[in-house]
Design a protein that fits this description.
With 671 residues, this protein is α+β, with helices and mostly antiparallel strands. It has 16 helices and 23 strands. It folds into three domains: 114 residues, 2-Layer Sandwich (Alpha-Beta Plaits), CATH 3.30.70; 261 residues, 3-Layer(aba) Sandwich (Rossmann fold); 195 residues, OB fold (Dihydrolipoamide Acetyltransferase, E2P) (Beta Barrel). The chain starts with a strand and ends with a strand. It comes from Eucalyptus grandis.
Length: 671
């Protein structure tokens, strides 16, 4: 639905603006032309490349009113225009403190899905889950935005999540049924789904988070202006793409620790008198952009939920700035003053707060999502007693805090992924290990391993938990008995799948490196290599042929090959799905997902019977960009190489994100 949002710019009645949700390909000229055609008198109209909103300025409130009336009921293409108020460009209202801004009245579904804060974001958490309801655009506080379920009791939240997940899982059955090639019988799991009310397998329940409050070990606070125009460090009340830039303090957000809130408030106070400007999202200028607070906790059991704050032993602060055009001396002096403010605030707080490292990330891009190679600089921290600077290397990449999962200590670098709710993550990994049926005869692949927490915490349950997937899979394929027709043909398909040059290039690009901790519970040793699986496909230029003492290669040593996959929100890359599905010896795997919608889409591809003659190579001009993830998955099934499908065996939810609509979903797939 097309949307038009209006903004009275602060009550002086002279200038008003609209933001129009537009086709992505439109330019400012298209927008102007459209407004002219409709006879909409306006002062200026702009649309930024790649964005789905345009900004329309009017001479006065009367002109705005006429425009809104003129646009009522009109369409752009097939989409109907909708009019709503928008939260103002708060930075322009700085001088007009105290102005009450009109609340947005209505928004489209898509906007609602994306309407929430980027404040608590990491791979696994933003409040944009269509599956679990999204959050309200009418939010007026950070609490409403980042923890929209906080008004419910925890039990009600869990029930709400289970119900939402059931609806999502039913999509898997419906779509796999639709995608099943004609002439191929429906698999048993689809036929029996009626007995489960449409579910592809039993959803066994939901595991509670040991901690429900202050559980996050990482919070990303945006820097911006509040609705009242005050420089604020907190969470955005909506999405910039919809023109929402207001930032509100994280007060009363139950998932944020007191320590994280306090550091945000120290920084906010500092900004009131900083000589450098805060980031302006409209013209992409300014200096201060974001504050990330990362906490490292002491080793505790999941039953130790009392006084969770006292377990926070280390804190790393990561400041994101854009230093373009600011001289080095000014920057250094501002950093020094800020670090002093953090140190003083931490010492004055009761109880005092840890401060382990302050790192600066210099980033010039438009969005706050900085590339992995954005420069990091470690700031020296003065010692509270004598005012001297603590010893520090200057490279921010070397900054570390530590946290524990299942008695293992992990070194966490400033940008590494680490589950935000450590105690609940421990439960999640343990469940995945149980369902994977690990034993000493198992070779375990930890796919999308990140810091390696899954492989490391489960290493003691398997025969081996390291090495590289590519060389092992290839080695394994060579050892496949030749008399098994079915197996051989599937292997051939697998080889075809992984030899496609263009796909390999894509996969190469996907590889990334993160810091990991070695698999030694008692030592805290950091490794720069990878443990578990970094490579998702068999692209291994320098294959090493290692053999065990028995003369067997590593792969031959193990009777079972099991994968636990834990991809980012977008799910598994199609080439990985193909690799998993067409490898005949992979009989079971556990899929962990922080985005049930992408799990469902991937499971459609993994569990639908493949066509006898796949459509590989056929030209298809369908507008795949407009397809839903499930629709796209159905489409991909058509070109799946002939291979035995998996079936969903059971699913379980694990609540890593109390008070938000999010939740991890674990599914066991077998064949
Ligand atoms: C949901 S996290 C899980 C990480 C880890 N299993 C854990 O629980 O800490 C997904 C991880 O996949 C990594 N990742 C993203 N894209 C990837 C890719 N194409 N290949 C391998 N890993 C990827 C991310 O960096 C992130 O560490």
């Amino acid at each position: 639905m097309t949307e038009m949002m209006t903004d009275d710019d602060g009550g002086d009645g002279k200038l008003s603006k609209c933001i129009v949700h537009l086709p992505r390909k439109w330019t400012s000229d298209n927008l102007k032309k459209f407004l002219d055609e409709q006879g909409i008198v306006h002062k200026s109209a702009k649309k930024k490349k790649g964005m789905v909103v345009g900004f329309v300025t009017f001479e006065d409130a009367e002109q705005l009113k006429t425009a809104v009336e003129g646009l009522e009921g009109k369409c752009i293409g097939s989409k109907k225009i909708k009019v709503a108020d928008v939260i103002p460009r708060s930075f322009e209202n700085k001088a007009k403190q105290g102005v009450v801004v009109p609340q947005r009245e209505s928004v489209n579904d898509e906007a609602e899905e994306n309407s929430v804060s980027d404040g608590l974001k990491n791979d696994c958490s933003n409040n944009s889950s269509p599956a679990l309801g999204g959050s309200s655009m009418r939010a007026r506080s950070a609490r409403d935005v980042v923890t929209p379920l906080a008004h419910m009791s925890y039990v009600d939240q869990l029930v709400h999540k289970v119900n939402a997940l059931m609806q999502m899982l039913k999509k898997l059955t419906r779509n796999a049924r639709k995608a099943c090639p004609s002439g191929v019988s429906l698999p048993d799991w689809i036929l029996k789904s009626k007995e489960r009310g449409g579910l592809p397998c039993e959803l066994e329940g939901i595991m509670e988070s040991p901690l429900t409050d202050g559980y996050r070990n990482k919070c990303e606070f945006s820097v911006g202006y509040s609705l009242q125009g005050k420089p604020t460090v907190g969470f955005m009340l909506g999405n910039f793409r919809e023109g929402v830039t207001a930032v509100e303090e994280p007060i009363d957000c139950p998932n944020v620790s007191r320590i994280a809130c306090k550091y945000a408030s120290i920084f906010q106070e500092f900004l009131q008198c900083s000589g450098l400007p805060i980031w302006n999202r409209f013209n992409n200028t300014g200096f201060w952009r974001q504050l990330t607070v990362r906490e490292g906790r002491t080793n505790r059991k999941s039953s130790d939920t009392e006084n969770s704050e006292s377990s926070i032993a280390e804190v790393m602060l990561i400041l994101q700035v854009c230093s373009v055009g600011v001289d080095d001396a000014t920057v250094s002096s501002e950093f020094e003053r800020l670090v002093q403010a953090f140190v003083a605030g931490a010492a004055e707080s009761a109880p005092s707060m840890p401060l382990t490292a302050v790192v600066v990330q210099d980033h010039q891009g438009i969005s706050n999502a900085a590339p992995a190679d954005a420069p990091l600089r470690l700031l020296p921290i003065p010692q509270p007693n004598n005012g001297t600077l603590a010893e520090s290397t200057k490279d921010g990449k070397e900054a570390r805090i530590h946290d524990y999962i299942s008695n293992l200590q992990f070194c966490i670098s400033p940008t590494a992924f680490f589950q935000v709710n450590t105690l609940a993550a421990e439960k999640l990994y343990s469940l995945a290990g149980d369902w994977a049926g690990l034993d000493q005869d198992t070779l375990l692949f930890d796919v999308c391993c990140g810091t390696g927490t899954i492989g490391l915490t489960l290493a003691h349950r398997v025969g081996m938990a390291e090495d590289v997937m590519g060389s092992l899979l290839k080695e394994y394929l060579h050892s496949i008995p030749q008399n098994l027709d079915e197996v051989t043909s599937a292997s051939q398909s697998h080889k075809e799948a992984i030899s496609a040059e263009s796909e390999s290039a894509v996969a190469d690009k996907m590889l990334e490196t993160e810091s990991v901790t070695k698999n030694c519970p008692e030592i805290n040793q950091e490794a720069s290599g990878s443990l578990g699986i970094k490579e998702q496909v068999s692209e291994c230029p320098e294959e090493k042929s290692s053999t065990s003492g028995s003369g067997n290669t590593p792969a031959q040593q193990f009777k079972k090959v099991v994968a636990i996959v834990d991809p980012p929100r977008m799910g598994l890359h199609p080439i990985v799905i193909k690799a998993l599905r067409t490898h005949p010896h992979l009989r079971k795997f556990v899929y962990i997902s922080c985005n049930p919608e992408s799990l469902v889409a991937n499971a459609i591809e993994l569990c639908t019977p493949s066509p006898e003659n796949n459509e590989k190579g056929k030209k298809d001009n369908r507008a795949w960009r407009n397809m839903s993830s499930a629709g796209l998955a159905r489409h991909r099934v058509k070109s799946m190489p002939n291979s035995e499908p998996f079936h969903p065996v059971k699913a379980m939810a694990v609540d890593l994100f109390p008070h938000t609509p999010h939740c991890e979903l674990v599914m066991l797939l077998e064949r």
